[in-house]
C-alpha cells in the first residue's frame, strides 16, 4: 500500500474579499506547507497503528480513535495527518486552475496534529499516541506520519484503515422552517443514493400516530465547484442530501421524528429518534425565543488543527446554545457558517457539531462571503473567500424557504415575529430583484398580528464602527444604508442584525446616522428609527473596533457571543446579548409599544400628504 501513496498537499485559501480583510483570518496553520519540497520517505522502522478499526458498532456517529506511532528519527515538527478516504493516491488528480500548482496528492487531510501534542518525550523515545475524534463521513480513514514539519514534509508511515460499521448511515438531521407557517423541513446526509435506497421520515405528534413521508435527494459534483481548492485538493464527495417536508402541523405542538432509508430488499435503516416543537400560528400570543449570531465556524473537540484554526470559540457558542436549547424556539446563523473555504470535509464536521441544536430547533442560515464569493460567479463582491465553493455546498446542505436557493433571500414567520433575511452576496440596491423582495417582505406583514419586524443580513448594511468599516469612511458596506434605510424607516423595522464584523455592537434607534431616541435600555414607542446590531462574534477570530466611537454606537464588546430575542407578547420584546464564554447576559434592552404606535407617522414613514391632512 505504501508505494501507492505520495506526500501531502494542503492549499489554504486565506484571501478574503477585495473590500475587507479580517486580520485573524491570516492564522492558517497549514498555509506554510512548502508543496514543492514534498518527498517520499517511507521507513520500515516507522509505524502508525489505529484502533479500534471498526467504529459505530453501537450506532454512534462519532468516536475517539487511539493512534499510536513510532519513528526512528523523531522530531518536534513531526505530525499526523488524518485522511478520508483512506487511500490518497495522486495518479489521477484533476488539475483545474492554471493559477494553482498541480497537486501532488488528490485530497487534503481532514485534520492534523503534531506528534508531540500529548507526548512531551516523543523526541527522546520516538513513540507517541493521540486520541483523535472521527465522525461518520461516508468513507474509511487512515493516519499518516510526516517528518520535516510543514516546510519539508516527508511521508514516513501510513496506518491501517479505520471505518464506521455503516458509513452510509443517515446522519446529522437539521430542521428548517418551511415556506408556510405550519411546515417544518428536515434535511439529513447519507451515503445512500436513490439507486440503493429510498429516503423517508417517520414522524407524528408526540405520543400519537406516526406516518411516513418521502424526501427529495440532492448532491453535487466536483464540476459544480467554481475553482481551487474546492475543485482540486479540497474536494470530497458530499454524499447525498435529503430533505422532507412535514406539513399541516398543529401549532406549538411537540413532534417526534426519525430519518431513514428503505433498502431495495424492503429493510429499513433508521436514525435515532429526535423531537421538535412546531411553529406557533402567525400572531399567536405565546412566549417566543429566537437566537441569532453570525460567523461561528467550527473547531475540533480533540484539539487537532485544521484549515481555519481561529474558530476555537465556536465550541463555546455551540455549548451555550445546547445548554439553553429548552428555551430556544429557532436559530438564525446569518452567514459565514463553517469557513470550509473549499475544503468540503469541513461541512460534515460542522453539521456534526451543531447536530444537537439543528435536530431540535429550526436552524436557519443566511449567505455570507465565505459561502459565496468567487470571481466571475455572479457574486456581488470580488474575492476568493469561498475557496471555490461559490455557494453550492451551503445552498445544498441547508434548506432555506427561498424561491431560488441560489438566491438566499427569504421571509420567515414565527409567531409574533417576521424575519426578512437578505443576501448581501447579491446586489441589494434599489431597482434590483432583491430590493423588491426586501420591500415586499417588510410591507406585507400584518403588524397588528406580528408587531416584531426584524431585518437580517450577513454584511453590515446599517452601522458598525469595526476598524475596516471605519477605514471605509462609511461605517458600513458602501451603498448599504443609502439604498435600504428608507425602507427600514418607512416600514418601521424594529431591529436590524448583521454579522461579518467579528464583535458585538449596538446602536441607538437611528435614522440617517442620527439617534432618534436617547434612551439606552427601556425603549417606549415610537422609536422613530431602527436599532442596528452587529452579532458577528459567533466563534471566528475577533475584529477590532476603530478608536473612534460614533455617537450612534451605544455598546461595543470585543468578545464572542450571540443574541436572544424574546417576544413576551404583542407589546413587549426583550433583547439580550450573551457571551459565549459563560452564557450570561452582558447587554440587554426592552421595547414596549402598542399597535397604534406602529400606525403613527414618523419622519419618512408616511406619505407626505393624505386626505386626512
Automatic annotation (TrEMBL):
Residues 529-588 form the Purple acid phosphatase C-terminal domain. One of its GO terms (molecular function) is acid phosphatase activity. Residues 290-504 form the Calcineurin-like phosphoesterase domain. Residues 171-277 form the Purple acid phosphatase N-terminal domain. InterPro entries: Calcineurin-like_PHP (IPR004843), Fn3_PAP (IPR040974), MPP_PAP (IPR041792), PAPs_C (IPR025733), PAPs_N (IPR015914). Its cofactor is Zn(2+). Keywords: Signal. Residues 1-24 form the signal peptide. The keyword Ubl conjugation does not apply. Residues 48-166 form the Purple acid phosphatase Fn3-like domain. This is Calcineurin-like phosphoesterase domain ApaH type. It comes from Arabidopsis suecica (Swedish thale-cress). The lineage of its organism: Eukaryota, Viridiplantae, Streptophyta, Embryophyta, Tracheophyta.
